[in-house]
Amino acid sequence: MKKLSARRRHPLAAVVVLLLALAATGGLYAFVAPTGKAQADETAQSLAIDEGKKLYAVGCASCHGTGGQGTSDGPSLVGVGAAAVDFQVGTGRMPAATSQGAQVPRKDVVYTQAEIDQLAAYIASLGAGPNIPTEAEYGPEGADIAKGGDLFRTNCAQCHNFTGKGGALTHGKYAPSLEGVDPKHIYEAMQTGPQNMPSFPDTILSEQNKKDIIAYLDAVNGDDTESPGGLELGGLGPVSEGLFAWVFGLGALIAVAVWVAARTAKAKKS
């Protein structure tokens, strides 16, 4: 006991105990923490950014600048986020043609999805922005179609028509049709506000609100549904539908008036 007590009073005893405790803690952390997976994910992300930077240098830097800072031919991409890249490149709008019109139209996609993901990873590394949504965010599970219809008519129908058929805007611009558009791209468009469209972040339209709107569009434009207005009535726009009502409605009233007048005149003669 005297020997043990003497060892405890040794000047280096506290240092030895501290070193043993640190070694035990480090060994336990190395055993419990998923370092292998974390390192693998970090390595994969770093490789994706490197590959995306190469793709960017070839296909995007001439307009958006070598560091995404923007030029007179293209806006800055710092802070736009991965979602903007996935939407613009995934719908074929980017890369844009050299001679642009009022707005960039949807075209055939140039890059594979893997390359799009690499470009998105590189742009996301330039500055924080909206991430690419997961299927759980835009999928139909838990969506309220009726509420989605109300939200769409309130926030989107002014441009896209109330069934998402699209419509004309000013100066040659237009709101594209939403029929057949990937739900992920609709979600990303609401997040990022491409071209003439305003953005709807979660502070304006929550994740659930976006899910509801996407479910409504799928309900009215799905492959297994009929037009809610019959022969596309309700999807042509207020001008064409108003003209239809004016010409055929007024024509029907005139026909009825002529028929009544003819019957009245015939009755008087007899």
UniProtKB/TrEMBL annotation:
Official protein name in the record: Cytochrome bc1 complex cytochrome c subunit
Keyword Transcription regulation: no
Catalyses which reaction(s): a quinol + 2 Fe(III)-[cytochrome c](out) = a quinone + 2 Fe(II)-[cytochrome c](out) + 2 H(+)(out)
PANTHER family: CBB3-TYPE CYTOCHROME C OXIDASE SUBUNIT FIXP (PTHR33751), CYTOCHROME BC1 COMPLEX CYTOCHROME C SUBUNIT (PTHR33751:SF13)
EC nos: 7.1.1.8
Residues that span the membrane, as ranges: 243-262
Ranges for domain Cytochrome c: 47-127, 143-221
InterPro entries in alphabetical order: bc1_cytC-su (IPR009152), Cyt_c-like_dom (IPR009056), Cyt_c-like_dom_sf (IPR036909), Cytochrome_c_Oxidase_Subunit (IPR050597)
This protein's UniProt keywords: Cell membrane, Electron transport, Heme, Iron, Membrane, Metal-binding, Repeat, Respiratory chain, Translocase, Transmembrane, Transmembrane helix, Transport
Subunit structure: The cytochrome bc1 complex is composed of a cytochrome b (QcrB), the Rieske iron-sulfur protein (QcrA) and a diheme cytochrome c (QcrC) subunit.
Membrane topology: Multi-pass membrane protein
Compartments reported by the entry: Cell membrane
